[in-house]
Amino acid sequence: MAGVIGTVLMLMEAxxxxxxxxxKAIPRPASIPLERWxxxxxxxxxxxxxxxxxxxxxxxxxxxxGISAAAIGSTDSSRVVRLRDNDGEKVLWRFxxxxxxxxxx
Length: 105
Hints:
Structural class: alpha+beta
Largest sheet: 4 strands, mixed
Number of strands: 4
Number of helices: 3
Mean pLDDT: 89
Oligomer: single chain
Number of domains: 1
CATH superfamily: PurM-like C-terminal domain
Radius of gyration: 14 Å
Order of helices and strands: HEHHEEE
């Protein structure tokens, strides 16, 4: 299963985008280590791409129903996906060099 990072990669590839994922911003249960959570595929989760001006309103709608939600990154036209953590940013994937599932070659 893809986990949240793999799911973001598939969304970006299909959308012909790149962007930044801030792994520290990803909501998770406090009892689960980040590394394990990143490899988990929570079938009850949502991954949305929202225009910046609508992010706060969308998060508020989820929170009003007791559902954790957070902005975990941004998209751009680079077709390069970067990860940010406490050590800075690193390139995770370059779609122009290597397709993930091939849905936007």
